[in-house]
Amino acid sequence: MAFRVAVVGATGAVGREILKILAERNFPVSEVAALASGRSVGQDVSFGDKKVLKIQALDRFDFTGWHIGLFSPGAAVSAIHAPRAAAAGCIVIDNTSHFRMEPDVPLVVPEVNPEALSKIRRGIIANPNCSTIQMVVALKPLHDKYRIRRVQVSTYQSVSGAGKDGMDELWSQSRAMYVNDPVTPQEFTKQIAFNVIPHIDKFMDDGSTKEEWKMVVETRKILDPDIKVHATCVRVPVFVGHAEAINIECENPITPAEARAILRETPGIHVLDTREDAGYATPLDCAGEDEVYVSRIRRDPTVPNGLSFWCVADNLRKGAALNAVQIAEVLVARKLLAQAA
Predict the structure, then answer these.
(1) Does domain 131-315 have CATH number 3.90.226.10?
(2) One digit per residue, pLDDT tens: the chain, 341 residues?
């Protein structure tokens, strides 16, 4: 069976990546609609190597008869149009933060908790935060065997996590620095070129940022409500690819060799850890790749059963677009589309 798929937010970085991945993975589509705001209507976007789609207006689009909606238009837009699509019988996979923590909306990473897709109640499935996705993919096989009690993570997140405007700002500021032009932050709170900013999203009452809060609550919802998580999220002057330094404390004894062996056997993970010059992954290495890369696996002697490792992934692919398409693939494989509708 082939499916009618609507891609919402098709002119954005994630929307374009979704269209690319649908074609790359030969997702069974009978028709694809590219949707965005009225100001983008009539623009062309690519679907595969040969086909070009014309942008249609989201607010005038009728989702009746469409099977899957892959949404990445921003939380406020999803809040309005995702329920409208679901009410028309279109199963929504939403990349925004709006529905993630609602108890009747599954929050899914296919390698980690595909069973949650059996509990679609409102016709909406949430895609987790990009930094959460890559972390829980790496944590899942370790948690299954060693039972993780606590996670301490520091992220190094690329500007593409802030969308096209974030990428444009890094480019323009870098150029300005070289030609001695003034630098004025707009998308970020401080200069991002040749700098790092320990601030992503809004500050909360306890001093954490909303990005850090997302990693805590989403990890608990996806993996285990009893895991303790503490995050520090930092924006870095990298165009694509998020990196994370992760420290875990387990209930059961764990060695680096055991962790390395388990991670190497886990689908969706690529272990690059040779303890020599260039024997580790960087954001540049993972750009355009589907896997979560794990390196620098070592014992943490400061806590019982402690382990540290480095985790890198392409945030536009696995951190957003690919994960959404993988969710759709699970729905098709398990014949859940008709059931959910």
Answers:
(1) no
(2) 899 999 999 999 999 999 999 999 999 999 999 999 989 999 999 998 879 999 999 999 999 999 999 999 999 999 999 999 999 999 999 999 999 999 999 999 999 999 999 989 999 999 999 999 999 999 999 999 999 999 999 999 999 999 999 999 999 999 999 999 999 999 999 999 999 999 999 999 999 999 999 999 999 999 999 999 999 999 999 999 999 999 999 999 999 999 999 999 999 999 999 999 999 999 999 999 999 999 999 999 999 999 999 999 999 999 999 999 999 999 999 998 864 44
Of 130, 233, 250, 286, catalytic: 130
Q: Ramachandran region of residue 246, left (φ > 0), alpha (ψ -120 to 50) or beta?
A: beta
**DSSP one-letter code for 327:** H
Decide: 219 and 292 in contact? Cβ < 8 Å: no
Q: Would residue 143 show up in a list of annotated catalytic residues for this protein?
A: no
- Nearest CA to 27 out of 321, 338, 239 is that of 321
The answer to whether the 3-128+320-340 and 131-315 domains have the same CATH topology is no
What is the rounded distance in angstroms from the CA atom of residue 89 to the CA atom of residue 92?
A: 9
130 is catalytic: yes
